[in-house]
Amino acid sequence: MKKIILASGSPRRKQLLELAEIPFEVIIADTDENYPSGLTSAETAIHIAENKATAVQNKLQEEYNSNAQTIVAADTVVVWESKIIGKPKDREDAIAILSNLSGKIHKVITGVCILTKEKKVLFSEETEVEFHQLSASQIEYYVEYYKPYDKAGAYAIQEWIGAVGIKSIKGDFYNVMGLPVSRLIKELESYQ
User: Fold this and answer.
1) Residue 75 appears among annotated catalytic residues
2) Can you state the percent helix, strand and coil of the chain, rounding each to 5?
3) Lowest CB count within 10 Å: 63, 123, 126, 139, which one?
4) What whole-number distance in Å separates Cα of residue 33 and Cα of residue 35?
5) Among 2, 4, 48, 57, which residue's Cα sits nearest to residue 29?
6) What is the structure's pLDDT at 163?
7) Which domains can be identified in the chain, with CATH numbers?
8) Phi and psi dihedrals of 80, rounded to 5?
């Protein structure tokens, strides 16, 4: 597979591309992560991913006068009761988010944009996650020691909370980590 540009600084997305043995380099650009009202959760994730890919394509054009690369960008949102749950603002917000998700089912949706000078592919993947009922001490322990402030929904499934707190998953596990790798590979193979 040809080398791609990953338009993300996420260590989890880098880890997943390495796991899949996809050659890549990371290039990021400042991106506005706001989105127009009226979009569905999937459309929101796709919109932000597309903005990230476009910003990197513009950066490559400005700095290297090149837009020949394949750029992959993604954005992951957590949805509970039809509302997008973002990254927690602080410790109290993280505890509140996890308390709301405790014992319930939520959705994790990742929007992906694959962008070249000739083509743009947009898609999203949805995974349903159910937490066991978590105790207040479990939630506080996780927030205190893992500090999930950079994570949508205030958790990372590959950390302690995933091993201890997840009751079931319906869909792609890696999507919950931030990138639906097998779907991405199928889409990239159609490019090559």
Assistant:
1) yes
2) 40, 25, 35
3) 63
4) 6
5) 57
6) 96
7) 4-191 (3.90.950.10)
8) -135, 130
Q: Strand pairing of 4-6 and 24-26?
A: parallel
Q: What are phi and psi of 71, to 5 degrees?
A: -105, 135
Structure tokens at 31: 């991106």
Give the DSSP per-residue string, 117-167: SS-EEEEEEEEEEEEPPPPHHHHHHHHHHH--TTSGGG--TTSHHHHHHEE
First to last CA, the chain: 7
pLDDT by position in tens, the chain (length 192):
788 999 999 999 999 999 999 999 999 998 877 787 889 999 999 999 999 999 999 998 888 777 678 999 999 999 999 999 989 999 999 999 999 999 999 999 999 999 998 899 999 999 999 999 999 999 999 999 999 999 999 999 999 999 999 999 999 999 999 999 999 999 998 865
Write the single-letter amino acid at 180: P
In this structure, the chain runs to a length of: 192
Looking at 75, 90, 93, 150, which residue is catalytic?
75
Look at residues 10, 31, 13, 5 and name the one whose alpha carbon lies nearest to residue 180: 13
Tokens representing 72 are 């992959």
Structure-block tokens of residue 133 = 């009922």
